Amino acid sequence: MRGVRRVVLLGVPALWTLVSCGIPATGVVEAGGPAHGLVPMLRVYLVENGSLVAVPRRPAGAVDAESAVMNLLEGPTKTERAKRLTTLLPPLTAAPTSAPTPLVSVPPTAGPSDGSAAEAAASAAVSVNARSGVVSIHLRYVSEELSDLATAQLICTAAEAQRIADTGTGPGAEAVTVKVTNARGRSVEGSEERCPED
What we know:
- Helix 2 runs antiparallel to helix 5 (148-167).
- The protein has one domain (42-109, 117-194).
- It is an alpha+beta fold.
- The chain contains 5 helices and 6 strands.
């Protein structure tokens, strides 16, 4: 009988510890919304040794042609420049010129973003419209003709991003045509058929 009391007395503190451990006895606790799928990577096309290179970037928001073009026009990041990647596109801060000038590799200007004022200036300098498998890019701040490689940077970047926006998939979906127009109304049209995959 004494052995039974001892077992019962030892069991009471153990039971008390389990009951008072601080974990409430509740059902399923809702916390936040449901999990979403993976955010697609944005690929911009930069230049390395005279050739196009697809460079993955994590988008700040949804992937579409407009966000991809604006991302491309920001130029290479510090890490990308360290890998000797560059762009042949003039930076958005470049003032329009009255006479055509040859383009050279232009590193981006590093400076603090002034938020909505910078976004407003950028949208006034560049417009991107997408519909029915065609993306139109109007570079109001560029009066000179772009080189073939600079134009290819825009075409490849915009076409791939728009294909992702339209179908949620990458390469393999229906082709997208991109039309690039400068401030003088000179247009060049192309698709991503010749764009490198990696």
